[in-house]
Write a structure and sequence with these properties.
By secondary structure, the chain is α+β, with helices and mostly antiparallel strands. It has six helices and twelve strands. Bound molecules: biotin. The site of biotin has 20 residues, from helix 2, strand 3, strand 6 and strand 7.
Length: 279
């Protein structure tokens, strides 16, 4: 359907420039979920940077227990195992920043490999215009050796056509091909993505939050926008997304109704599903 090369280890390796990520790549035609596969490998002790990639998933998982649409032949579904030497005091900031670091890296990779302009809806939805082109699901666990491990799962809509989306995604999702009019080689994009991710992780480990905070703020199209946030437990919040907290949380100022005669309330969101409201 897409007239682009199939996923292949040789093709991925031909442009791979990383030192650690992707030294081991397990490529499947079909898998339940690359995240699930990667977490099993991580728990069994596989090396840092191991990548699981599949042409299609039968049980692709999204954030907030959603299903991730995973048709064959057109997209990228990959998961990367991280086994970082992080001491307990640094673990919490690392876990809260990891999805944001990944979003910056994936946006950079798409822009290097294609002509698309990509922004990030907090915390880590990849957008072209106001439509979602990719998502990130970070999960953590403990290996046999008792060390903390993380799995970063990335799903990107690349060469499919809009008409192929199920009806519930029709108005909210897009593909790189739909946006640019051109096909993208998934092998090159994966190699670029691993490179950008390695660079971002290195920066974060060496410099801390400052650099990634700036890069994320530049990319994040949620900041400065009126938003509706669906929170855990079914409550909703409408307000202005004003800034990013030190831990990557989203600060939202909720305007009280005029007649309520009270000050705006400031909320700090760590987990939420955000909708950008039209201005
Ligand atoms: C989201 O809901 O936005 C996150 C979607 C993450 C999907 C990817 S596809 C590869 C990896 N394997 C999964 O089962 N999920 C992630």
């Amino acid at each position: 359907m897409s007239n682009t090369p199939n996923l292949s280890l040789d093709a991925i390796r031909s442009t791979l420039s990383t030192n650690r990520l992707g030294q081991r790549i397990d490529l499947y035609q079909q898998v339940g979920s690359t995240n699930r596969e990667a977490m099993s490998l991580a728990q069994a002790g596989c090396e840092h940077g191991t990548v699981v990639v599949a042409d299609t998933q039968t049980e692709g998982r999204g954030r907030l227990a959603r299903v991730w649409f995973s048709p064959p032949g057109v997209n990228l579904y990959c998961s990367i195992v991280l086994r970082m030497p992080i001491e307990p005091p640094q673990l919490s900031p690392w876990l809260s920043w990891l999805p944001l670091i990944t979003a910056v890296a994936v946006a950079e990779a798409i822009e290097s490999a294609t002509s698309a302009a990509v922004s990030v809806k907090w915390p880590n939805d990849l957008l072209i215009g106001d439509r979602k082109v990719g998502g990130i699901l970070c999960e953590s666990g403990t290996g046999q050796d008792g060390h903390h491990v993380q799995v970063i799962g990335i799903g990107l809509n690349i060469n499919g056509q809009h008409a192929d989306f199920p009806s519930d995604l029709g108005t909210s999702a897009t593909t790189i091909r739909e946006a640019t009019g051109a096909p993208t080689d998934r092998n090159r994009l994966l190699a670029q993505l691993l490179h950008e991710l390695e660079v971002c992780i290195e920066h974060f480990s060496q410099i801390g939050t400052a650099a990634v905070m700036l890069a994320y703020q530049r990319r994040c199209s949620t900041l400065g926008k009126p938003i509706r946030a669906a929170l855990n437990g079914g409550t909703e919040l409408v307000g202005l997304a004003t800034s990013l907290g030190e831990d990557g949380s989203l600060t939202v100022v909720e305007q009280a109704p005029l007649q309520a005669n009270r000050q705006p309330t400031t909320h700090s969101l760590r987990v939420a599903d955000i909708i950008h409201l039209r201005t």
